[in-house]
Please model this.
Amino acid sequence: MTQVSAAAVPSTGGPAPDVRKMALPAWPVASILAFYPVWWALGLGVLIFALMAVPMLFLLIRRRTAGRPLRLPPGFVWWVVFLVAVVVSIGALGADPAGTVAGHATGRLLPAGYKFLMYGALTVLLVYAGNLTEAELPRRRLVRLLGWLFVVTVLGGLLGMVAGNFEFTSPVEWLLPSGVRNKGFVQSLVHPYAAQIMDIVGDSQPRPAAPWGYTNTWGNNFCLLAGWLVVAAGQARSGKAKFWAVVCLVVSVVPAVVSLNRGLWIGVGVLVLYVAVRYVLAGRLWIIGAVTVAGALLGVALLATPLGDVVGARLDNGKSNGVRSFLIDRALDGFRESPVIGYGGTRNTLGGRNSITVGESAGCERCGNFTVGGNGQLWQLLYSHGAVGTAGYLGFFAYGLWRFRRDRSAIGVAASAAIVTSFSAMLWYNSLVTPLAFMVLAFALLWRNSIEGETT
Model:
């Protein structure tokens, strides 16, 4: 869609348009990304996306009323279908699928409302970021901000390794009633901690989580953000910036391995393979040599350091495999029972995979009563929002990949790689909130590339 500048607005004899109201400031997007560690420390974390959606929505409406049209992303109808399915499926919150803990719709309304609020906030982020011009927020600056968050992810991973028990009470947490702030879900939102302590390979070990709340989210964001550091380094004019970017990428291998996160390892493989294929198809055969050398160096590092033993121990201990298979079966069973709109949200299983007598208690929130739809975005979509919601969600991002498939710029390849990586990750990771935020920002960059005509 063609952009209309304030200077190009024809005179109609009425009052002149207010150019200031037509402009969109960069600060709502930039402040989320640049200061995310601060938001995390304050206890706002993912809540900052909902808070910043308020001024973004106001500014979008103000610009529209000032006479400047708003662009909607290509394929937006798919996303609207998804949002409608999310709302309609709320009507099924009162249903109790077979094998799940019985409950009432009112008790399930709050988590369902939270998810819809976040989906709505990220929709605003998508539209806002896509409507920003180069003068308001240059794409290079947005890339640098995303690359910065990869640095933050690596630093958080190192913190989780060396100080796994590090945690503190945030200001927001102090303001909450004790009965609320002690809930596990609320803790994940407002209580900053460096790592999750989990027994994966025989004894309890810290697994990096900061500043993303969960180890799995940390791994998901690692894959979604890594490409942006590479692009930012390539765009940098300073040799020092390129050097430190390389150092960060090399150091990142350590927390990535120590996290024991197999989904992360698969995601990095998908990321590298996709980028390599794109470059080979573009005739840049040097990428084959680069990937080969990098793979060889990684192999030597794993053989020559204790990291190799960590990988071997993780591959020999697949404790979560049985639980994941159990939950996938339950999700598919539920999908078959309500295939169109799903159940509006997740459900807890009766007991565990081996017995219905094992359940959650005050002393053990994670014993039994596993969350159906909590082990991957795909399973959550199918179970919570049925075929309609799943088609809308996947259709939007798939359409974006197809629509912008000819974008061979560094930004275009990195953005499409992030979306492709997210498709593989949805088999074991949930996307709300930050992973989906980085997905919509990747989409926005592809969209803005096509508007500016810089796709090579």
The chain has one domain: 24-452. The first helix runs from residue 19 to 22. Residues 332 and 383 are 7 Å apart (CA to CA).
